[in-house]
Amino acid sequence: MTLFEAMFAPRHDDHGKARTAGLPIRRLPFPERVTVPLAQHIGKPARTCVRIGQPVARGELIAEADGFVSIPHHAPVSGTVEALPLLTMADGRRTPAIAIRTDPSSLQCRLPLPPAVDPLTLTPDALAAAVQATGLVGLGGAAFPTHVKMSPPREARLDTLLVNGCECEPFLTADHRVMVEHTAALMAGIRYAMHALGVHRALIGVEDDKPAALAAMAAQLPADRSIQCRVLPTRYPQGAEKMLIRSVLQREVPSGKLPADIGVVVNNVGTLTMLGELLPRRAGLIERVVTVSGPGVQQAGNYLIPLGTRIGDVLRHAGMAPGDMEVILGGPMMGISAPSLDVPVTKGLSGILVFPAGSLPVRERRSCIRCGQCLDACPMGLNPSLLGQLAAKQEYEQSARHGVLDCIECGACTQGCPSGIPLLQYNRISKSVLRQRRPS
Ligand code: SF4
Ligand code: SF4
Asked: Which of 37, 242, 270, 370 lies 20 to 30 A from 307 at CA?
C-alpha cells in the first residue's frame, strides 16, 4: 500500500479509537498535589534531593539519577514538598516518592532554563548525558531510560533507527495525536537520536488506520530521504519491537538478543517527540500525553497531564460515569487493572481506560483443554500453554529454555484461551523472576 492509499483508504473497524483520534490534545488543570515515584522506570531508583517543606519550581530537579541505568525526576508543578512517602504502585511495588502540594497562587511557569543548545553539535557521549538529564524514558510503556538506548555498545554495527508509530493497542490514540500536532518536534527528536546512534537512516512505521498522522508527517519528511515513513496494515501486536522490525525490515531478532545486535534501535514516536522538545532547552520531563477513554468516561480525550497526578484526579476531570467501574492502566491488551485510584500517572503510562464493572469478558478458569489456540495466536512462535504450566510449577529455568524471555507480552494468548488461563500473567512472573536472577 502506498502512502497516498493509506491516507485515504476507508476504515470500518476503529478498535475504540475513533472517539479520541480526532480530538486535539488538552491540558489537564494542575491538580492540588502530585506524588512522583522515584522508581517509575527500568533501572535504579532516583535519589531524592529535596526535603520536606522546601519550595520547588515547576521543572526543578527533585531527584538525581543514581548511576548510569537510572534517571532524574523534575517537579511537575510549582509548590512545596509536603511529604516523602512510601508509595504503592499499580503493579504492587513499593517505592519512595516525593509529594508536592501545588501552590494555588502560582502561574505554573517553568523554571527559567539555561540558553538553548543545538544537540547536533554535541558528541555522542555528551548527547547521551544530556538525554539522561531530561529524565526521559520510553513513553510507549516500557519506561526504559532513553539515554541507555542511545548508548549502544561500541561494537554494535547500527544502520537504522526504527521509529514506532504503530500504537496498535485498541482505544489508545495519544501517539496518533502527537504525530499530528507535534510533527516538527518529532522530526527534531529523530535527528537527535540518529546523531547519537551514528545512523543515516530512520524509518517511521505507521499503521494505515492513522491517515491524519501520515499526512502530517509526509509534509515534513526531509528531501534527502534520510527519514521515511513505512505504511503498515493495521494489525495487533505490530507495535511490539520485534514485530515492528520484522514488518519493516524483514529481520529477525535472534532469541536472547537485542535489536542492536541486528543493527536496529527502536524508539516510539512519543519518546522522540519529547526528546525533540526537551533536549534543545535542556528541560526535564514533567508531563505527558495520556489517552483517557472507554465507555465509563464522559469527556474522553488525550490529555497533557502533570506526572504524579492521581488517577482519581484525572478521572474526576474527565467525568467518570457513576456506578462500579473498572479502570485499566495502559491498553486493554497489555495494561493492568488499577488497584486503586490513588496511584499516580507515571512516565510510562499511555492510557487510562474505564469500563463498567462486569462489562469486560471474564472467563471462568478451567483446566487446559489442549485446543492449541494460544500456540496459533502467539506471534513469537512460543508455546504459551507449556510456559504457563512451567510457571505454575515455578520451573522458571525451564521456561527460559522454552523462550519465555522472548515473550513480547502482547496478551494474544490470554485473549484467545477458552479456559481463562492467565497465560500473559504467568509469563510476566517468569520473566520477572529470571531477570532478578540474571540482572545483566
Ligand atoms: S503474551 Fe502470549 S501470545 Fe504474546 S508473545 Fe507472549 S506468549 Fe506469545
Ligand atoms: S488456549 Fe488455553 S486451553 Fe487452549 S491450549 Fe492454550 S492454554 Fe490450553
From this structure: 242
